[in-house]
Amino acid sequence: MSSKITFRDKAVSNDIKTIYDMVKSTGFFRDDEELIAKELIEEKVRDGEKCSYRFLFLEVDGKPVSYTCFGLIPCSLISYDLYWIVTHNDYRGKGYGQILLAETEKYIKKLGGAQVVVETSSKEIYKSTQHFYEKCNYKLVVLLDDFYDYGDGKLVYIKKV
């Protein structure tokens, strides 16, 4: 039996725990970063469309297993930040992240977006993340050494959509 993949862009209160668990499951993020992910979905659930953050969930057989959080960059009319893309660790390596990223790019394009900007860490643990963006045709345009911490630079990738 094959799994059914669906997408959802409406955030609901159950997503607060789901996102927190998803982010925690990866082992990539510090405690403060995990709390930020939780705060963003709490804001979206609380404020609805007044909130500038947008979420897109990839669900497998009705269960959210991956999500993106993105939004129009302030003072830009066409550039969107991809703040988060996370797949629960139990579902990594199955292509869900690529499927969701492609769907997010289509969504951004429908909103009038022309490019997606992504930031990530230069640390060794993020090599798979860097390869992921490169595989999805994102171009590395900026490297800022010692940005997040000493030995932890900021990489900025961009893709036209």
Task: Give your account of this protein's structure.
This protein has 161 residues and is α+β, with helices and mostly antiparallel strands. It has a domain at 5-114: Gcn5-related N-acetyltransferase (GNAT) (Aminopeptidase). Helix content is 34%, strand content 35%. The chain has helices at 14-26, 31-47, 96-110, 127-135, and strands at residues 5-8, 54-60, 63-72, 79-87, 115-121, 139-149, 152-160. It has a seven-stranded mixed sheet with strand order 1-2-3-4-5-7-6, with helices on both faces. α3 links the parallel β4 (79-87) and β5 (115-121). α1 packs antiparallel against α2 (31-47). The longest helix has 17 residues, at 31-47. The relative contact order is 0.14. The model has no long low-confidence stretch (mean pLDDT 96).
| Helical/strand content category | alpha+beta
Radius of gyration: 15 Å
Helix content: 25-40%
- What oligomeric arrangement do these chains adopt? single chain
Q: Largest sheet, described in full?
A: 7 strands, mixed
Strand order of the largest sheet: 1-2-3-4-5-7-6
**Rounded mean pLDDT score:** 96
Task: Report low-confidence residues grouped into runs of 5 or more.
Answer: none
Distance between the termini: 34 Å
CATH topology of the domain at 5-114: Aminopeptidase
Strand elements, count:
7
| Percent of residues in beta strands | 35-45%
Q: Which CATH architecture of the domain at 5-114 would you pick?
A: 3-Layer(aba) Sandwich
Globally, the shape reads globular
Number of helices: 4
Q: How would you name the CATH homologous superfamily of the domain at 5-114?
A: Gcn5-related N-acetyltransferase (GNAT)
CATH class of the domain at 5-114: Alpha Beta
Order of helices and strands: EHHEEEHEHEE
